[in-house]
Amino acid sequence: MKTSKEINIDKKNQFGAEILCIGSEILLGNIVNTNSQWIAEQLAILGIPHFRQTVIGDNPERLKEAILESSNRSQILITTGGLGPTPDDITTKIIADAFNTPLEQRNNILMDLKNKIKNKYSKLSESQKKQSLVPKGAKIINNYSGTAPGIIWSPKDNFTILTFPGVPSELKEMWSKEASNWLINNNFSGKIISSRVLHFAGISESLLADKIPHLLKAINPTVATYASTGEVKIRITAKGDSLEETNRSIKPIEKELTKLTGLKCFGVDNTTLEEVVIKLLLSRKETIAVAESCTGGGIGSKLTKIPGSSKIFYGGVIAYNNSIKQDILEVPEEIINTHGAVSKQVVEAMAKGVQKKFKANWAISVSGIAGPTGGSKLKPVGLVNFCIKGPKTLITWEERFGSNKTREDIQKLSVLNALDRLRLSIIMEN
């Protein structure tokens, strides 16, 4: 049997890679599987094609079956999960069993385990010692922050397994410090695949697609649209021999997209609306306060997640009850009685009230019917009113997100809509 370093790579990338995430908690939906997405991005950066992602529960038979199936169709199998000390951590043993290979104890892993837990336990338990057992001939991927190491192992020709723990932070560190370099040094890395993601607000996916039909037909780079709650994304993906080459291919497409869409594009890659708003306010040395009803503090929460927001975010009021609107924000009772709590008149008074109370340059207010009950024919579920008050700006508007939306969706859409209009208001104010 060949070791990982002796693997025949004459047919590199012939079958590509696949990802296998292990854990009943993922299969049952108890936790969100972010590992597959991250690994896929890393494979793309390395130019390693991958064609399949699978989730398997903590079942020995099904796990063994999935591993053997992968060995017959892929060159690389990357697994996450099932490497810890608990009884359901079976990944390493099942991998060894699948290829009729004994496990051997690695003393260096054992010593590492002892050093990491010496402050917690007097000695290692048998379940903890289990983490030092690996298939004979496997290369170790060190775990720098956790206890469970990974392996790189080639149990058959043209097939290599890389295992990682399910904890995302441990996986990422192990990948960046060891696994990525190993894949490059062993000639698995091929064409570089780079992506650039542009974020849009205030426009639907269909309208955005109508503006760029010629770009959507491109082959390299490729352009694709993706819709999510409150925004649309365009991913530009290029393939080339180097990162510099792919970036050169992406740049003119990005420039054309931003020219065609104008201010609808608010950021790239991991940029968020709240981040853009904070940067705009910081650049102007201006401050903001919020008055929220149906969003329950969602706008304030978004803004305060950004580092440095304390310099411009003064605070907010969650005026869920009408008495709070009156007593704290000084909304006149007669306005509420005449127009209702969900009205342009009330949100205007809320914005003026919170701006005055906090002495902020900008204020934004929101009041609506998030549902699932509380709507009427005139004011249905999904109706939300907004107001932005700035040094020179005063705008009110309403959105009808639809009674078919969930309460959570209406709240999320309200927050994103408010932040986007705030972004545009700050930009447009001289």
Overall strand count: 17
Radius of gyration: 27 Å
The first-to-last residue Cα distance is: 72 Å
What's the mean pLDDT score?
A: 91
Provide the CATH topology of the largest domain: Molybdenum Cofactor Biosythetic Enzyme, Chain A
Residue stretches low in confidence (pLDDT < 50, at least 5 long) are 1-14
SS field, number of helical segments = 16
CATH class of the largest domain: Alpha Beta
Q: Which structural class fits the helix and strand makeup? A: alpha/beta
User: Approximately what portion of the residues adopt beta-strand conformation?
Assistant: 15-25%
CATH-assigned homologous superfamily of the largest domain: MoaB/Mog-like domain
Q: So, CATH architecture of the largest domain?
A: 3-Layer(aba) Sandwich
Descriptive report:
Helix 2 runs parallel beside helix 7, helix 3 packs across helix 4 and helix 11 packs parallel to helix 16. The strands form four sheets. The protein has a six-stranded mixed beta sheet with strand order 2-1-3-8-7-6, with helices on both faces. It has a five-stranded mixed beta sheet with strand order 14-13-15-16-17, with helices on both faces. 39% of the residues lie in helices and 24% in strands. The radius of gyration is 27 Å and the shape is elongated. The N and C termini lie far apart (72 Å). With 430 residues, it is an alpha/beta fold. It folds into three domains: 182 residues, Molybdenum Cofactor Biosythetic Enzyme, Chain A (3-Layer(aba) Sandwich), CATH 3.40.980.10; 77 residues, Alpha-Beta Plaits (2-Layer Sandwich); 156 residues, CinA-like (Maf protein), CATH 3.90.950.
